[in-house]
Every structure is written in C-alpha cells, then in structure tokens.
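Format notes (please read before filing issues)

Several people have asked whether sequences and structure tokens are stored in separate files. They are not. Every record keeps both together, in the order shown below: the sequence lines, then the token lines. Line labels are part of the format and must not be stripped during preprocessing.
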Amino acid sequence: MNHDEVRNIAALARIEIPEDRMARMAEELSRVLAFVAALDQLDLSGCEQVSLAPAGVPLREDRRDGRTLGAEAALCAAPEQDGGYFLVPPVVENLNP
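Then the structure lines:
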C-alpha cells in the first residue's frame, strides 16, 4: 500500500492522517490486507457453517402486523421536509474534483 492509497482511504473515511504517520499507516494497512488475503486462501470445505444466533432461540415469522406509522405522522417532527420526504444534509460529497 502506498501513500496515495492511504490518502484516498483517509479521504473516504473522512479522517486526517498526518504526513509523518503515512508510512506507518501504509505498513499497517498492508499487514491487514495480507492477513485477509491469507484467510481467503483457507480451505473451509470441511467446516460446518456457524450461526451467530444462540442455539434454540425461536425465530418469529416475518410478517406485517397491520400497524403502520403513516407518512404524515412520520414527518410531523421532521425539521425539514418537502413533498412527503425528509430533507437532510448531504452525507456524500464528490471527493475527486
């Protein structure tokens, strides 16, 4: 991983990395990517899939219960709205001029 790649990742994550830490960050990110690549090479064909839910936990049927909030009620406390939609500040900007 080079300094330009670290700068790009930092920009996407909206974090600042001081120039004097670029080399260390590039090294650490390279080690993380190497570890993930090593995991990708593991033969897991004989392994059983593990569920994160505790055994025996009953799961409910995914169905509607008939209760809905409605657009008007949902928007009643919105600081800004327009045409039945919430207006929010932009969260993604063009990082490449």
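For reference, the curators noted about this record: The chain has a mean pLDDT of 87. The helical segments are 3-13, 22-40, 71-75.
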